[in-house]
Each structure stands twice: as structure tokens, then as C-alpha cells.
Automatic annotation (TrEMBL):
InterPro entries: AAA+_ATPase (IPR003593), ABC_transporter-like_ATP-bd (IPR003439), ABC_transporter-like_CS (IPR017871), ABC_transpr_LolD-like (IPR015854), MacB-like_ATP-bd (IPR017911), P-loop_NTPase (IPR027417). One of its GO terms (molecular function) is ATP binding. This is ABC transport system ATP-binding protein. The keyword Metal-binding does not apply.
């Protein structure tokens, strides 16, 4: 599903060069639920951005679904992101002036032909039902709790029925009860077939996934298969 080969990422300015990732080789199979851990500044979010085609490597190759995408043009990358990848962010990134259902519809606005008008609305309703927020469709983000906002963000991520969900600290701004609620939703999505990659600082949350990747100073230093609790 996702393959990274000999990935290196360097950020350069006129005065300084920062090596963010070095010699990353990683394969993620369809249906896996992966967590990525490491200290702040170790490259976790950079790695997630490369997987999500939001950034490009300085060296190496990125494959999504068997396609080598490293040399894709911006328009091709945007189309692939929109159809195959859903993003969940720690800070929700909801638009306060839009209702919940309008926020969820946003990714579908960039599609042509197969998701227009009433179809978009129905897909948004279905996504909100999956996260248990069908009774909040007409509310605005300012009327929601933190946990509810994150559920809206998850609905927005899955509305286009992506194969891959990338989550950057999805429980980081929530208390433990709300964090567990979000993890339950992610586990249900994974059980439904979604491949999920989650960056987290929370060891307890990480242990609820299938596999734990550890980074340190931009290098992959650990790759552990975790005990499955659903067998």
C-alpha cells in the first residue's frame, strides 16, 4: 500500500542545512494500523507528510498502491491525495463559519463528475453517521467539544472513502476518555479495511495498533509487530 525506499529529506536555507530524515526504508501493507513514535523533532510529521504526498523527498522513492509517485506533477499528486488519502490533524483544522456537514463535504468539492450536489451531501451524512455525529450536522465547530471536533475531522477524512488514513496526533488535544473514543473509531475504520498510519506521543495509544515504528534523529530505529487484541 505504502512503500518508502531510501528516503532522505533535507531542508535547506541560505545559511543552514537540516537533515530531517535519512535512509528510511519502510513498507506498509493494505489493512495495517501503524503507529509512529519518537521525540519531538525526530521527523515523525515529515515522514507522514511524505506518505501523504504533501511534501517530496530530497532523495529516494515513494510508492502508493504500487505506483511510483515521486516524479508525479502537482496536479497528479493532488488527484491521488483526494481519492486515496484522508488526513486527520491534531488541531482539527475546521472552518468555523461552515456547518459540520459543510466542513465534511470540503474534500468532495475538488472531485469532478462522481461526487456532485445531492451525492456529496449524502456521502457527508454517511461519514458523520460513522463517527456518531448525525445529530450535529447543522451545528458549527464553535458549538462542539474537542472530541466532537475531532470526530468531524475524521468524518471529513473518510468522506471520500480513501484507502489510506494518515493521522497526526489525533488524540493529542483530548483528554483520555475522548482519546479512547477517537481510537475506537480509528479501530473500527481499520476493521472496515482502511490502512491507517498514526503519529503519536502516547505509548498507550500506540500499543492499540498493529505495529510500532520508532524514529530518532530522522532515522528509523525500531519496527515492532504488536500483539493483536482482536484475535
Amino acid at each position: 500500500m505504502i512503500t518508502l525506499k531510501n528516503i532522505e529529506k533535507v531542508y535547506r536555507t541560505t545559511r543552514i542545512e537540516t537533515l530531517a530524515l535519512t535512509n528510511i526504508n519502510l513498507s506498509i501493507a493494505p489493512g495495517e494500523f501503524i503507529s509512529i513514535m519518537g521525540p519531538s523533532g525526530c521527523g515523525k510529521s515529515t515522514l507522514l507528510n511524505l506518505m501523504g504526498l504533501l511534501d517530496e523527498p530530497s532523495a529516494g522513492q515513494v510508492q502508493i498502491g504500487g505506483e511510483v509517485v515521486t516524479q508525479y506533477r502537482d496536479r497528479e499528486l493532488a488527484r491521488l491525495r483526494n481519492r486515496k488519502i484522508g488526513f486527520i490533524f491534531q488541531s482539527f483544522h475546521l472552518i468555523n463559519d461552515l456547518s459540520v456537514i459543510d466542513n465534511v463535504e470540503i474534500p468532495l468539492l475538488y472531485r469532478k463528475g462522481d461526487a456532485v450536489g445531492a451525492s456529496r451531501r449524502e456521502m457527508a451524512r454517511e461519514a458523520l453517521e460513522k463517527v456518531g455525529l448525525s445529530n450535529r450536522m447543522k451545528h458549527f465547530p464553535g458549538q462542539l467539544s474537542g472530541g466532537q471536533k475531532q470526530r468531524v475531522a475524521i468524518a471529513r477524512a473518510i468522506v471520500g472513502r480513501p484507502d489510506i488514513i494518515l493521522a497526526d496526533e489525533p488524540t493529542g488535544n483530548l483528554d483520555s476518555a475522548m482519546g479512547n473514543e477517537i481510537m475506537n473509531i480509528l479501530q473500527q475504520l481499520n476493521a472496515g479495511g482502511a490502512t491507517i498510519v498514526m503519529v503519536t506521543h502516547d505509548e498507550t495509544m500506540a500499543k492499540q495498533t498493529h505495529r510500532l515504528i520508532r524514529l530518532f534523529d530522522g532515522a528509523l530505529v525500531g519496527d515492532s509487530v504488536l500483539a493483536r487484541t482482536d484475535d
